[in-house]
Structures are given as structure tokens and as C-alpha cells.
Amino acid sequence: IKITLCIVAVIVVLLLILSFIISPIARWYIEEHSKELVGRRITVENVNIKLLLGRLDVDNFVLYEANDVDTFVSIEHLDADMRVWGILRKSIEVDSINIVTPHATIMREGNGLNFDDMLTFFANKASGNAENDTTPSDWRIVLRNIGMDNGVIRYADDVLHIDWIMNHIKLNIPELDLSGSGTDAQLYLDFARGGHLELKAMYDQQLMDYDMNCRITDYPLGVLMPFMEGMVNVGDVRGKLAVDLHAKGNVENIMASDFDGAIKLDSVVVHDVKGVQLLSLKEFKTDIEHIKVAK
User: Fold this and answer.
1) Is the dihedral of CA 73, 75, 81, 84 positive or negative?
2) pLDDT digit string (tens) for 142-182?
3) Which of 248, 245, 241, 255 is nearest to 287 (CA)?
4) Are 47 and 32 in contact (CB under 8 A)?
5) DSSP label at residue 178
6) Are 223 and 241 in contact (CB under 8 A)?
7) Of 259, 249, 265, nearest to 216 (Cα)?
8) pLDDT for 52 beyond 60
9) How many angstroms separate the Cα of 247 from the Cα of each of 83, 86, 190, 203, 257?
């Protein structure tokens, strides 16, 4: 009995020591090997891992652009709770993931996007892994209560000369089972120049079926002007757009999806490039009873 107690005590002490040193080691490893992991430079202000409790806290995470200077993605705070002992059963179960104040900048320059290099990096990495290991994994991975709050996404396009900001982004995913079951998700965001988006989706990973509801309210039509320039003789568009769309189908045959819903325009005024009014519309609404793009 004394030997057993001594062994248990030694294991506990080792785990306690490891729990104290693992956080700075993890932070050092992430920053030192970030280009090997994701192909970009990463900095982290603080990493706190409570090994025995399965708790992770990360503060001020920054993923940089390819130039290693400008910020591509930043996260003010991230925390997660995991069932540590499930690893012994080949099960990774994360009970909660909270992402606070994430910020991402997406830029289009010419025909490319500012993350094309990362897509190539991960594609090459996935291709290499597939060649080395074709054995199906028997690990179960479940992520629960994934939440994001106060997110911001900026999209800049030097071709269309637009700079859009979507803020107050909230995301909620009750459960994501990477082993192949269904997933529900809700996304909410505000557009910086007005308007609100609500997106609710359900996806069956085994059948690859999806069911999605998208609602946009009070979206200013003037934001769409860059897409009209050069195509029509329009100098100014004012008014609000509302969309309520429901879609369902299978991701392997997107063109066979079913659509229904409604589109509404309010207080629309259109002027040409000389300021002459071309159209004035108090309200326009059309209901979409059923659209099937292809059989």
C-alpha cells in the first residue's frame, strides 16, 4: 500500500509541476513554430493551461499577414473547457469554446485574396498527410457550446473600391461532432453602414443535407453601388433591402437546392450620373414560393 501511495503521490507531483510549466512552453512553441503550423507568424500575449481541470485561456492572439507586420486575424480572449480524461478513451470532448472580440481583415488585390498563401499551405499539408496515412481515425471529436461575441470582419476590395465592415458578430454552435453527426449554428451580425443579418443553419454531416434560413433587414441599397458602376448609368441609389430566404438541399448537388422566401424594397430612389431621378418606389415586395435551380 505504501508503494502504491508513493507512486500516486509522485504522479500527482509530476502533473502539478507539468501544469505550472506547460503554459509558457505552449506559448513559446506557438510563437516559435507558427510558420510550421499555419504558414504565418503568430504572437500570443498570454497562454494559461490548467491541465488537470482541462481549462485553456488565451489572451491577445494575433495572426499576421504574409508580410509578418500587418494583422490578419486577432482575438482578444479565448477560453475552452475540455474533458481531459476522455483522451484515454480516444475521445476529445470540448464542453465550451468562447471567442471574445475577434477581428479579421479580408482584402482582395487584383485576382487574389490576402489568405491565398494559407490556402496553398494547408492544401499542400493535407495532401502530404493523405499520402502518408490513409487509415480511418477511430478518435471521436466533439465540440460543444461554441460561442463568439463582438466579432468584426472588414472586407476591402481595391478592384471594386469598396471597404465594408461587419460588426457585433455573434456565433452560436450548440454541438459540432466531427465524427459525423448533425450540426446546428446561428450567426448574427450588424453591417457598419446599416442593416442586420441573422443566419440559422442545420447540417447533417453523414447525409450532407443542409437546411438554412437567412434574414437581412434594413440593408442600405447604396452599399451595392460599386457593383453597378460601369454597368448602368446610375449615379446614386437610396433605399432599404430586406430578404427572408429559406434554402435546403445537399452540398454534393447545390444546384438542386430548393429556395423559398421573400424580398422587399422600401423607399427606393435612383438617380443617374447627372442627378436626374430615374426611379422612385415607395415599396416593392415579391414572395418566392418555390425555386429549384436544377433537378
Assistant:
1) positive
2) 999 999 999 999 999 988 888 989 999 999 999 888 776 77
3) 245
4) no
5) T
6) no
7) 265
8) yes
9) 36, 37, 22, 12, 7
Buried b (16+ CB within 10 A) or exposed e, 123-142: eeeeeeeeeeeeeeeeeeeb
- The pLDDT of residue 186 is 93
Partners of 165 in the β-ladder: 154
What is the 3-state secondary structure of 82-145? ECHHHHHHCEEEEEEEEEEEEEEEEEEECCEECCHHHHHHHHHHHHHHHHHCCCCCCCEEEEEE
Q: Which residues contact 268 (CB under 8 A, 6 or more apart)?
A: 221, 237, 238, 239, 279, 280, 281, 284
All three cell numbers of 28: 513559446
Using DSSP bridges, classify how beta strands 162-177 and 140-157 pair: parallel, antiparallel or unpaired. antiparallel
All cell numbers assigned to 197 = 443579418
What's the pLDDT at 233?
A: 78
| pTM, 2 dp | 0.81
CA atoms in the 13 A half-sphere facing the CB of 5: 2
3-state helix, strand, coil in the chain (%, to 5): 25, 55, 20
Q: Are strands 91-109 and 140-157 parallel, antiparallel or unpaired?
A: parallel
Identify the band that residue 12 occupies on the pLDDT scale cut at 50, 70 and 90: low
Looking at residue 86, its pLDDT comes to: 84
pLDDT tens, residue by residue, 231-263? 667 888 999 999 999 999 998 888 788 999 999
For the CA atoms of the chain, what is the radius of gyration? 25
Place of cell 480516444: 90
* Whether residue 84 has pLDDT greater than 60: yes
CB 103 within 8 A of CB 151: yes
